[in-house]
Amino acid sequence: MLIRHTYGDRTLWNIPGGGYKPTQETPEQAIERETKEEVGLTLDTVEKVGEYYSDNEGKRDAVILFKATVKNADLKISGEIAEAIWIDYKTLTGRTDVAKVTVQAIEDSFGIVLNP
Predict the structure, then answer these.
(1) Where are the domains of the chain?
(2) Fewer C-beta neighbours within 10 Å, C or N terminus of the chain?
(3) Quick check: 105 and 114 in contact, CB under 8 A?
């Protein structure tokens, strides 16, 4: 799933996500919460597929990528999300409307090159 935010660069697609406090929740709990908040989906199974560090926003962030199955596929986007789409990561090759952090996350996690 990719999303476009209502803030920042609204032309770029990103992966859903957000911050979490390791003392209060696990990364899996955080992605379940963020996915519910942002796009209204309840996750069924959650599996970590990759982790890397990003300096894209002027700070060093740990980015953790998950794959998941959903209990419901009906999207209910929040006010911070302009649009959400289901898309196979393999179809993203060469696209220029996907955020660099998202491209990096997918490439690192799945061992592919989207933008050669």
Answers:
(1) 2-110
(2) C
(3) no
